[in-house]
Design goal:
The protein is built from 7 helices and 3 strands, in the order H-H-H-E-H-H-E-E-H-H. It is mainly alpha-helical and 149 residues long. The two termini are 28 Å apart.
């Protein structure tokens, strides 16, 4: 649906202003979809992001600083998120042997099993993009990359 209809605004200063509003609106729309998708699993988007980072590094542990570097939302409190995941038994947290000020975090079997289930349910979430052709998807990805240059 057109942005103007969604937010009930017919005029923008110019196309650049409309682009900014459209990106923010679309980002929030996608985030709301993902949040609904993860709600059944009692996970936030940020917790899900941490689990995926840890799975990518498995079986090696990752420090909190590495998690912060790789997270999609750079303003998240990674230590707090890891603690929540630890309480759910999805990750383990240990003192780093080389630097006692740092913590090593590793995903557990339970965390890996959860991601396996989420990988299957993610197919439902991705359906919202399937009305775009693969070429259109590549073009959007390239334009977003170019925008962040």
């Amino acid at each position: 649906m057109k942005l103007e209809v969604e937010i009930k605004q017919s005029k923008f200063k110019d196309e650049y202003h409309k682009l900014g509003v459209n990106i923010i609106y679309t980002s929030n729309w996608i985030e709301a979809q993902r949040t609904r998708h993860l709600k059944d699993f009692d996970l936030s988007l940020e917790q899900f992001n941490i689990l995926r980072i840890l799975r990518g590094q498995f079986p090696n542990p990752v420090t909190i600083n590495i998690l912060i570097e790789r997270m999609l939302n750079k303003t998240s409190n990674a230590s707090r998120l890891v603690e929540k995941l630890r309480r759910k038994s999805f990750v383990e947290r240990k003192i780093n042997k080389e630097d006692r000020r740092a913590c090593d975090v590793i995903i557990t079997k339970k965390g890996l099993a959860l991601l396996k289930v989420l990988d299957e349910t993610e197919k439902e979430w991705v359906k919202s993009f399937l009305h775009l052709s693969e070429n259109e998807v590549k073009k959007v990805n390239n334009l977003l990359d170019k925008l962040r240059k």
